[in-house]
Design brief:
single chain, alpha+beta, four-stranded antiparallel β-sheet, two-stranded antiparallel sheet, 6 helices, 20% strand, elongated
Length: 191
């Protein structure tokens, strides 16, 4: 039964990974821009903004932010609330002095009032490619380390290498299950 349950998760997951877009990778693996914004004012009319009280923040929803970004062909941005009216927005690369950034910020001001740019982090696509490549190397080295450690730790047991191979196989199985589930869920939800 356990093999059947495992196959029911792994096979659709592998198919989902093989079909485009596969996994929805973040800025860390694709390159792009990560911006943290804190909304601090209320729009009250055309071009007018009412500042909120000290310590108060303007409530903005993820859907409202996504709608503004979608108008600028950034609807696939990853948007996360970090609490207290602060939002983390990850998009494809946007240069700091680009007209696109100025247009987006103008729309944010018109719709949500004033805001503060807490931080901006840009990640070059080449650096992101190397991060992804080094992640794969780290997993391979960890698997070899596990294999060696278990083989040495269980040296008194007959066929200790077999236990190491079983442990690495279980590790790969668990990773494929998680990757497959994220690939499937990423087709329907922003994960």
């Amino acid at each position: 039964w356990f093999f059947l349950l495992s196959a029911l998760v792994i096979i659709p997951g592998l198919i989902s990974l093989a079909l485009p877009p596969g996994l929805r990778l973040s800025v860390d693996f694709l390159g792009g821009t990560q911006t943290e914004l804190r909304f601090t004012g209320q729009p009250v009319g055309e071009g007018e903004v009412r500042p909120v009280s000290e310590g108060e923040v303007r409530p903005v929803s993820e859907g409202e932010l996504r709608a503004v970004l979608a108008r600028h062909e950034l609807g696939d941005a990853i948007i996360q609330s970090t609490g207290q009216g602060t939002w983390l927005i990850r998009t494809r690369e946007i240069k700091p002095d680009s007209p696109l950034k100025q247009e987006i910020y103008a729309d944010f001001r018109n719709e949500f009032g004033t805001f503060e740019e807490e931080s901006v982090l840009g990640l070059d696509p080449e650096v992101a490619r190397r991060v992804a490549q080094n992640s794969v190397y780290a997993v391979i080295i960890a698997a070899i380390g596990i294999l060696i450690y278990i083989s040495i730790a269980f040296y008194k047991v007959p066929s200790p290498f077999r236990y190491g191979v079983s442990a690495v196989f279980a590790l790969v199985h668990d990773a494929v299950v998680v990757l497959g589930l994220f690939s499937i869920l990423g087709r329907y939800f922003p994960v």
